[in-house]
Amino acid sequence: MKIALYISPPFKEEDLGSMLAFLDLPVLESPPSPGDYDFLLCLNDKGLCLLSLNEKKGEQRRLPTRVDFCDATLLYRKNTSGKQQGLAKAVGLNRHEPMRVLDATAGLGKDAFILASLGCHLVMLERSPIIYSLLQDGMQRAKSQEDDDIQQVLDRMQLLHARAEDYFEEILSGKEQKPDVIYLDPMFPQRDKKAAVKRDISIFQELLPPDNSIDTLLEKARACLVKRVVLKRPGSKPTKNSSRASFIVPGKSAYFEIYT
Q1: Which of 38, 116, 141, 219 is deepest in the core (most CB within 10 A)?
Q2: Considering the entire predicted model, what is its pTM?
């Protein structure tokens, strides 16, 4: 996949600072010609965003993907769902006080934000430099807002650029503190071809193929011997592998396998 970085005027290269070296992408001074690149990471007046340039004939134009912790839909979920939502029950917040949660596959950070809003302290891991940069940009923009409630939520969220497998080894060796819960939400689930896939997940499936199976990652998480490991699965019906779980928390578009 060919990816470039485009800095939209009036922004300049220095506005990205150390991120330029971190991303190690070619920098464009003007939008690319069709066919030159597959994806464009763009800094504009709305922040950092990722745009797919691989539009198929007849396909609806794809909107940019960005992290927005001030999104109205996300804030509505934060303010209305509470501890009775599936995510909170899966982590155990309907029965226990807020805990230390390791979100080992942070993605766009929405579930981490909800858990932090319910009082949990989150360590978020993201292996992809591009997704990590989108997350970092989203957190910085949210922190610039004069909203004390959002500030308190973000203060409970720590973002690290790391592979989950490596961090699990750090836990086992005692170099990192053991969390109460490890949360796994694979950004790249295997789906039936007829099943609809959300826009943001679809673009990440194209950009970043998985480097490990979720079942292998699950076993490595369970080896850390935390209070519970939570695995989010797409769909409303448990798979045959779900029989290994201690119990299931159902949902409409996703369900949770809990391993205690």
Answers
A1: 116
A2: 0.90
Closest CA to 223 of 152, 158, 167: 167
Q: Are 47 and 66 in contact (CB under 8 A)?
A: yes
pLDDT tens, position by position, 60-114: 566 889 999 999 999 998 888 888 899 999 999 988 888 999 999 998 999 999 9
The set of residues, in sequence order, having a beta carbon less than 8 Å from that of 74 and lying 6+ positions away, is 68, 110, 113, 114
How far is the C-alpha of 257 from the C-alpha of 238, rounded, in Å? 8
Nearest-angstrom CA–CA distance, 234 and 152: 30
Q: How many CA atoms lie within 13 A of 107 on its CB side?
A: 22
Radius of gyration, CA atoms only, the chain: 19
Amino acid at 26: P
Q: Do strands 254-259 and 228-234 pair parallel, antiparallel, or not at all (unpaired)?
A: antiparallel
Q: Could you read off the pLDDT of 152-185 as tens digits, one per residue?
A: 999 999 999 999 999 999 999 999 999 999 999 9
Name the one residue in this structure whose structure tokens are 């809990």. Answer: 258
Higher pLDDT, 240 or 122: 122
